[in-house]
Specification:
alpha/beta, TIM Barrel, two-stranded antiparallel sheet, 11 helices
């Protein structure tokens, strides 16, 4: 697959659920997807868990109305829920087999372009059982490629002994850099693509987050209880946003675009997943596809110069 440096992330459009972003207008969600595609984005990343099926449903709706080139559709398995909406987790073979059929129906497709294990299991044997089942799905033609998300280097090594790993999806941003020590070098050495999520720190680095807005996040928004959005981290993060704003401003760009460009500076990073809840948000971030920072600008953003 030849994917654009930025893809549309469909987490937030799932709406109000345990790990959601609060209420969301479906019309805005579909319009956001269409605007991203109009501006050249050629892949969408979703998951059954986002809104307990709702995000996948909306992706299908958006593509049903789309007349341009069809984008790649990526989804995941592993986070499940019962009839009462209680969220659980399983990557056992039987569970994955159920999940793939449900995702194919919701997305209204015959094959999924990239199928990813959302999280590894609590035990390695469960993780490897699930990965072996995903390899079978690829052999059967239900998915074109298989990848993983949130894996450690040890998990990458053990899974790759069963079947090749197309891609790793880890969190990566100026606020979360842990993968630089292990996963990025591993993926570079073993030719594993890296599509990072939350490059704007779940909205903290967009330039739109203020002290007042952080304090008024509704309880339905999972960020309201996240340490990055409360003191003492909040003040530190807002200073970081000021540095992003300075660098971005010299290029007529947004702080969010600078934050995404920072993640794309690494040669191991194939692309970044960027969420948007309406067309205006898309227009403020999609420019990161062709925006790169100089070494001096990177040092300034990181507070080293």
């Amino acid at each position: 697959m030849a994917i654009t440096p930025v893809g549309f992330g469909a987490w937030a459009i799932g709406g109000n659920w345990k790990f959601g972003w609060g209420d969301q207008d479906d019309r805005d969600s579909i319009a956001a997807i269409h605007r991203a595609l109009e501006l050249g984005v050629n892949w969408i990343d979703t998951a059954p868990a986002y809104g307990l099926g709702h995000s996948e449903y909306l992706v299908a709706q958006a593509l049903a109305d789309w007349t341009g080139p069809r984008p790649y559709v990526f989804t995941k398995c592993g986070i499940i829920w019962d009839k009462d909406g209680k969220v659980d987790y399983s990557v056992r073979a039987k569970s994955i087999r159920r999940e793939i059929e449900d995702s194919l129906k919701r997305l209204k497709v015959d094959v999924i372009d990239l199928y990813q294990m959302h999280w590894p299991g609590d035990e390695m044997d469960e993780t490897l059982e699930g990965w072996a089942e995903m390899a079978k799905l690829k052999e059967e033609g239900k998915v074109r490629w298989i990848g993983v998300s949130n894996f450690s280097v040890e998990e990458l090594e053990k899974a790759s002994a069963i079947a090749p790993i197309t891609s790793l999806q880890p969190p990566y941003s100026l606020l979360k850099r842990e993968i630089e020590e292990g996963q990025l070098p591993y993926c570079d050495e073993h030719n594993v693509g890296v599509i990072v999520y939350s490059p704007m720190g779940s909205g903290m680095l967009t330039g739109a987050m203020t002290r007042e807005r952080a304090a008024s996040l509704p309880k339905e928004d999972w960020r309201s209880g996240n340490p990055q959005f409360t003191e003492p981290k909040l003040s530190e993060n807002l200073k970081l946003v000021d540095r992003l704003r300075e660098v971005a401003g010299t290029h007529g760009r947004s702080p969010g675009e600078a934050a995404i460009a920072w993640t794309l500076r690494r040669p191991e990073v194939t692309a970044a997943i960027v969420g948007a809840r309406n067309p205006a948000q898309v227009e403020g971030i999609v420019g990161a596809m062709d925006f790169r920072l100089s070494d001096e600008e990177i040092a300034h953003v990181e507070g080293r110069a």
